């Protein structure tokens, strides 16, 4: 039979305790790669999107520019909302997961607009813009839904990805498990990967869109995501 001193020792020093519930350094490459692929996919849509709206949706340049402006504004604002929800309610891991799924749905939906002809207005001569048929309300709603899902997903990922990686270097008591050098190295590689992925997006993916068409050019970012 256990003595009182042994029972007291078990209470004060439990045998089953997770001293480091965080993932540690081994999780950082996955977090960095996830953000790099998301940034590559999202950035790959932007440069040629005005051409897609004008040529495939028969929009005027001013109208297409306004659409892209609101899309960009939503993409830059929603990370603020995502950070608030992650810190106050759902947590960073859940927010990143939600963002990845939502962003993927938006990209797949945008890619499907290049596949199904009924998702776009009838094609016409680009030089005869005034005589072209405008997109219907349902076609525009499908397009705007894709943009909205991509912005919403990007807001979930970008608001929590950097901080979530830094969290992996902490123990449960909030003390850093590694030196400050590891944290600085993580930040450096994070920003390097984001910059490199953006460069690949505005060169390689844009080249594919110009030479292989919208189906392949939009399908590759969706596959990357």
From TrEMBL:
It comes from the Eukaryota. GO terms for cellular component: membrane. It is found in: Membrane. Keywords: Membrane, Transmembrane, Transmembrane helix. GO terms for molecular function: transmembrane transporter activity. It is a multi-pass membrane protein. It holds the Pfam family PTR2. The chain crosses the membrane at residues 68-86, 93-112, 141-166, 187-208. Its main location: membrane. Belongs to the major facilitator superfamily. Proton-dependent oligopeptide transporter (POT/PTR) (TC 2.A.17) family. This is Major facilitator superfamily (MFS) profile domain-containing protein. The lineage of its organism: Eukaryota, Viridiplantae, Streptophyta, Embryophyta, Tracheophyta.
